[in-house]
Write a structure and sequence with these properties.
By secondary structure, this protein is α/β, with parallel strands linked by helices. The chain has 9 helices and 10 strands. The N and C termini lie far apart (about 45 Å). The structure holds NADP nicotinamide-adenine-dinucleotide phosphate (NAP). NADP nicotinamide-adenine-dinucleotide phosphate (NAP) binds next to helix 1 and helix 7.
Length: about 300
């Protein structure tokens, strides 16, 4: 069992975590469940979601867990998922992400795989979840240090890309972050808020073992321990995200990440986001492009 957390301060709150069957999303879900939240695991594979659910139940006594079938690369799946959420949502953590792809790889809807999944999929999901969000709901977009090295260029968002997979990944994360900051601006004057957070550099071999999740051999775990001063486990990577989603110290428009060297590891603190992801002009243009590409209206 996970040691009893300091508080069960999230009893009565329901939080959806996308991509909760693996990695950082799993750890966000386990940490939130340990604080008493009802957690919805938004996952595309029912089998992998069940493995994660079992693991959380094995580590958190009395965990309140639900599974939401969700493929962020499919507009049909997103619409079905949004329509089937029975609970009022107090939080949504937009964590699911594709971290690398070959040029030309596409989602089920035919969008660029990383832009389509990481940014457009979450945009469409949030647009359709809006009626189920509580008046004080918090949305957290999981960004990345890589956002700083990318240009969003909303007008060409879905066009075939050149350059490296890493820079296209950074662009998809920058787009997701800019959507969250724009959402927060549109929600000003209400009690709803949107924030961004990133996990630093978080790897499986430094993460506590969980049955059925990312098995790591003892040898690799031992070797990885040598890098422990530089990077961190995915449990620690989840901390700034959970902090952004739940702390009274965090407010709309914030960006949280690890406080250590290069923001690779360490305790959560506010960190700097690029001027582009905070730009009102880029945010407005991106919103319009996302509505058009995702085929959903998100009027606020
Ligand atoms: N690890 C890092 O150092 C790092 C650094 C910066 C940012 N991040 C961000 O943190 C997030 C989690 O990263 P991670 O390292 O935990 O990655 P991970 O272990 O690869 O997990 C990714 C999760 O996203 C899900 N996913 C991918 N495509 C999906 C789709 N179409 N629909 C629904 N779910 C989908 C995966 O589900 P399946 O199991 O079905 O594939 C999985 O649950 C990502 O957004 C990533 O960009 C990570």
């Amino acid at each position: 069992m996970t040691p009893t957390p300091q508080t069960r301060d999230l009893v009565g709150r329901t939080i959806l975590v996308t991509g909760a069957n693996a990695g950082i999303g799993y750890w966000c879900a386990e940490l939130l469940a340990a604080r008493g939240a009802r957690v919805l695991l938004g996952c595309r594979s029912p089998e992998r979601a069940s493995v994660a659910e079992r693991s959380i139940r094995a580590h958190v006594e009395g965990a309140d867990i639900g599974i939401l079938s969700l493929d962020l690369g499919s507009s049909a799946s997103i619409a079905e998922a949004a329509a089937s959420v029975g609970d009022t949502l107090h939080g949504v953590i937009c964590n699911a992400g594709v971290k690398s792809a070959h040029r030309g790889e596409r989602t089920a809807d035919g969008h660029d795989l990383m832009i389509g999944t990481n940014a457009l999929g979450h945009f469409a999901l949030l647009a359709q979840l809006a009626p189920t969000l509580s008046p004080d709901a918090r949305v957290v977009a999981v960004g990345s240090i890589a956002h700083r090295f990318a240009r969003i260029a909303p007008a060409t968002l879905d066009e075939p890309w050149t350059g490296s997979s890493l820079s296209q990944y950074g662009r998809s994360k920058a787009a997701l972050m800019a959507i969250a900051f724009e959402l927060d601006r549109r929600w000003r004057g209400t009690a709803r808020s949107a924030l961004c957070a990133h996990p630093g550099y978080a790897v499986d071999p430094l993460t506590p073992a969980r049955d059925g999740l990312a098995p790591v051999s003892p040898l690799v775990r031992g070797l990885a321990a040598l890098t422990g001063g530089l990077v961190q486990g995915k449990d620690a990577g989840a901390a700034p995200i959970v902090h952004a989603a739940t702390s009274t110290d965090a407010t709309g428009g914030d960006y949280w990440g690890p406080g250590g060297l290069l923001e690779f590891r360490g305790a959560p603190r506010r960190v700097r986001a690029s001027d582009e992801v905070r730009s009102r002009e880029v945010g407005a243009a991106l919103w319009a492009a996302a509505e058009e590409l995702a085929g959903v209206r998100f009027p606020i």
